[in-house]
Amino acid sequence: MTQAVPPILSVTPSRALVDEKFQVLVENLPPGCPVTLRSLHRSEDEDDWEAYGHYVSDHRGVVSVHSGHEGFRDRTPLASALAERWYMAPGVKRIDINKQGVQGTLFIPPGPGPFPALLDMWGGGAGLLEYRSALLASRGYVSFSLDYLRSEHLSADVEFKYFETAFNIIRNHPQVIPDRVGILGSSLGSMVAFNLTAYSTIIKPRCIVCISSNHYHPPGTTLKAGFKILSKHFHKAHFDENNYMSWRSFALDLIADPSNNVEVGRINCPMLLVNGCDDQNWPTVETAEEVARLLREGGKEHLLSRLAYPGAGHLIEPPFSPHFRATKFIILNSKEKVILLWGGHTKPHSDAQEDSWRKILSFLQLHLYHSPSVKANL
Amino acid sequence: PKQWAVLKRDEECMKLLSAMTQVVPPILSVTPCRALVDEKFKVLVENLPPGCPVTVRSLHHSEDKDDWEAYGHYVSDHSGVVSVSEDLSYGGTYTGKEPMGLLWSMRPVPGSRPGLRLRKMNVCTPMLVTISVHSGHEGFRDQAPLASVLTERWYMAPGIRRININEQGVQGTLFIPPGPGPFPGLLDMWGGGGGLLESRAALLASHGYVSLALDYLGFDQESENLEFKYFETAFNIIKDHPQVMPDRVGIFGLSLGSLVAVTLAAYSTIVKPCCIVCISCNHYYPARGSTVTSKFEGVTRWVLSLSARVNEDNQVIWKDVALEFITDPSNIAEVGRINCPTLLVNGCDDQNWPTVETAEDVARLMREAGKEHLLSRLAYPDTGHLIEPPFSPHFRATTFVMRSSKEKVILLWGGQTKPHSDAQEDSWRKILSFLQFHLYCGPNLKAKI
């Protein structure tokens, strides 16, 4: 039959933001026909990624693409469609920042503004990742993807000032509402968020989001120096049956000593902590427990919201990003390559990404867009 | 009195909005932000004060450098939300619950040149529309918008290939869907006076058809026979394409293009379209020996020289004069000879061509030839001549340049904006369903099994 006429495959919408859903529909199949639907993406690194699902068409001949289930890749597809997934909505402006010693990329939503804003920081070992900021700008926030691991800072004070300066660059931007700037950090970036918010006398984030919470920061150390200290414990790392390296257990010992940690009890703004219960890289759930305890002691527990996802790992990203249980990682100082275990299992981790993103956006909208202060004024 | 109370509340609300937006703007979103031109979007405004009058406006800067706009007046609900898909517009360029009113009710901004028509000539780039929200209703333009976003409207889905055709003397643009194929094919033809419009062919390819937008008015063919061969050759170029299913090629024509469709279907001995779609059907095919091009020139010159009716706005109406032409049976194509499923779509308020009478005539002739079962008809009340894909703005009358003399007139196409726009939306859905049925599904397929 398929030599006569192909099935009709459609992806709606064919162009979407990466956190939006699409509907994949196939029509014009024979009824009750086993087929396989497959996605294929060639990455910027020139690797091919795929996913696929086996389906059976209904009595109207509706579902999916390749004929048959086993060995579907051996045959040419019956039909294929191309879908575009965008990080930037139309009209979002991308601006390279190199100002007052601070480097990074700024994304500005379309429209006159002014807008609330975010300082956005990823974790270690990744280089400058812009995609979350681009997406946040597409959702209405001026968002600054900060490059903070490239250079070596002379001292912890100088490094601290780097972060304060970065925050103020956003705060002073003509299209930013100065008292509505928050911080979003993941992994090492969440430590920076805790650190800034707990100790800065000059910047006051309106709220912070910490994904894969980390509050380990030996006092008076730069990030690089802190990492050197961490690496001295690598010999205690646990290696699983695949020889993947997990830092979780030795890190748990490290954070047991409170003198190594940021005094999060000093924080005075709303906080959202998002963690995966199967995080094998860092004891993020235990960190969140500790944060809760310290805030409770200070009578500030009302500031805290926590999300802990069963079966999710360390790399909690925007929705529909593939899950990586373990990936190659270059140890900064030694240039040694290991495979780091992040944890998580694909289905629960993906559910966590979808749910947490929605809740993060809703948290940000509540604290950065809605106006309890205006009602107070009236 | 009640009115005063409402006014006062509106004033307070706008003051509150002004105070608020100095602190934080409303949140405006268009979902999806990138879409095909025939897809719907949802425009949502949040974070307004409750019960607040605002205006949502669209703005498009055309390729011809004119500005087109539409707008609706809304009032936010108790949670501070305006949803264009769900809420009533109280006035503007459209009223009522109209999710897509910001597109189809667009018209040139005040102060623009008269007689403008919106057509996208470059289909490789999207149509960019800025959607913005403004405080208040009357005089909303006096202040800067509170928020604005940009949305892209595409004719081409990702992966569509666009190929210039200049082959065997035939010129046009071919659009091929992504994927291995093979696909059904369509020969797509616009009416007179447009130049080569690719927008519909690109959109049809986005729906899975290899489509050729044919350029057929640019040249003076030497004779009617040669011109007929031009169309047959064009059809065969599609039919013979390696990614086209040769027995699943249809013809899609609007206005003069529909004349080509019916004559090919009726008279060609070598091309056999699987089905034809005729929008604003024209079957005027007088004495042999004149080409479509010259017929067209002839009709237009004749109509103007016979002082076609000109209304009080100086808009030229061809319909009545044309009606006289087509009452002579020797002037019309023998549509009873058509042997394939035929869909006729026309507007009952067509002022350019007597398409209603034409459709009646086609039905009569096909009935007499025992072919009535092949015919489907859609006739839309208060709809004009230029029935285009959904959400395209409606033009009741536009400037038309005579090809030979370069004389400019304003032609009346007819239709009222709201019913015409409804007709575009409804007819497109039905056209796609007709094409899918005959070119993708098709009874002959079941016969093979």
TrEMBL record, chain B:
Start and end residues of each Acyl-CoA thioester hydrolase/bile acid-CoA amino acid N-acetyltransferase domain: 38-167
Gene3D superfamilies: Acyl-CoA thioester hydrolase/BAAT N-terminal domain, alpha/beta hydrolase
A single GO molecular function term of this UniProt record: fatty acyl-CoA hydrolase activity
Annotated catalytic residues: S255 (charge relay system), D350 (charge relay system), H385 (charge relay system)
BP terms from Gene Ontology: acyl-CoA metabolic process; fatty acid metabolic process
Signal peptide range: none
InterPro entries for the chain: AB_hydrolase_fold, Acyl-CoA_thioEstase_long-chain, BAAT_C, Thio_Ohase/aa_AcTrfase, Thio_Ohase/BAAT_N
Annotated Pfam families: BAAT_C, Bile_Hydr_Trans
Name of the protein in its database record: Acyl-coenzyme A thioesterase 1
Species this protein is from: Oreochromis niloticus
The organism's taxonomic lineage, starting at the top: Eukaryota, Metazoa, Chordata, Craniata, Vertebrata
